[in-house]
Structure formats: C-alpha cells, structure tokens
Amino acid sequence: MGHKVHPKSFRIKGVEDWNVRGFYGANMSHYLEEDFLIKDFLRTILVEASVANIEIEHSANKLNIIIESARPGLIIGRGGEGVETLKKMIVKKMHDKVFSTNRLGQENVKREIKIDIKEIKNPWISSMLVAQWAAQQLEKRIPFRQVLKMGLERVMQNKEAKGVRIEVSGRLNGVEIARREYLLKGRMPRQTIRADIDYAQYQAFCTYGVIGIKVWIYKGEKFDK
C-alpha cells in the first residue's frame, strides 16, 4: 500500500502555512479543541456562503478569525450586522461547551474576538469551492461524468490553473457497487514539494448514499525566497 499524505501538510513551512497559528501558552490542548469547535460551527452555519477556508490566529487576549468566501455579502449583512451576530453566536457556542473553563477548573481569560472576511474573486481557482459546486450538481442528480467534464473545463479556462484533477467515489449514479472515477487535465506533479497544489475534499449527500469528492488544482511552482 502507498502512504498517502495530505498535499498541504506535506508542504508546511515550505510553500504552505498552518491554518491555525499563534500563541497557545500552557492550555494548548484546550485552545486547539476550541479551534476545531469554531471551525466546525462556522462551516455548518455558513453552508450557503461558499466558504473556501477558515484561518484562526491566536494572541494573548485576542482571537482573530479569517473567513475566505466567494459570497462575503451573505456573511457581512447590512451594515455589518451579520458579522456582529456571528461573533455573538461564536461566544455563546464557546460558553455553552465545557471549553468555558480549562482543565484546572479556572475561568479562561476573556479574549477579544475579531472576524475578518476575505473575498475570493474567482471561485474556479479554489479547490474547495470547485468541490462544493460538484457536490451541489451531484445532489441534483446530474450524471457524474458530466459534472467532472464541466468542472475540468471551467477550471482550465483560468490562466492561474496549470492542471486539475477531480475524483469522485461511492455509489456513482446510484449503482449498487461503489467505485472510484476521476478525470485529469493539464499537469499534476504531485511528487514535487515545490508544486503549488490546492487540494480539497468534500461530500455530496445523495438519496442513494454519500459521494466523496476530491479536487487538485495545480498553480505552478513556488520557490523559497
């Protein structure tokens, strides 16, 4: 069997960086669990906002959450009301869980929560947004081969994309035996660490079962300065 490694984790501190970073102090396990809670909560309530990535930055008394979205208007709302509502929901979610106190039973230091929204101008060069689009098409019962071909063509129309691979697995088109199918167009040097590959995986919940989706988008090579 081959040893499969996530393309981003394979390139950490080379051409990629961590999604969660900052100062944790003595309560690293507590704050790390809190980060997973925040990420899962945001992805659940912002399903319609086309969220591509969520980054969290820690400091002594501040928590900065960076949300990359193709539809930032749905998150911001009128006059920024959406951001304030989202901030209150995060605070309540953190307070309702056991995470409101640390392992010693002491209350955590109150931290200021800041939410930054970044707009993704071209969703077709984001692997997560392409995977979400493919999931929406499969849930509408569009044949998977048609979805793969449409996705390849739309991604390769952009100059930034040098290559793309889209893979689906499961009970494709509702057949009884699950299998895996993929289409590849352009270059995809997955053995080269300096290759800038945007990778994402997503799931489509169909009436006949769950279809797994994986997307690789190759954007050229990165070299350390």
From TrEMBL:
Entry-linked CDD domains: KH-II_30S_S3
Domain KH type-2 per the UniProt entry, residue ranges: 38-121
GO molecular function: mRNA binding; rRNA binding; structural constituent of ribosome
GO cellular component, one term: cytosolic small ribosomal subunit
Pfam families xref list: KH_2, Ribosomal_S3_C
Xref: Gene3D superfamilies: 3.30.300.20, Ribosomal protein S3, C-terminal domain
Keywords assigned: Ribonucleoprotein, Ribosomal protein, RNA-binding, rRNA-binding
Keyword Phosphoprotein: no
NCBIfam families (UniProt xref): rpsC_bact (TIGR01009)
General function of this protein: Binds the lower part of the 30S subunit head. Binds mRNA in the 70S ribosome, positioning it for translation.
Family (UniProt): Belongs to the universal ribosomal protein uS3 family.
UniProt name for this protein: Small ribosomal subunit protein uS3
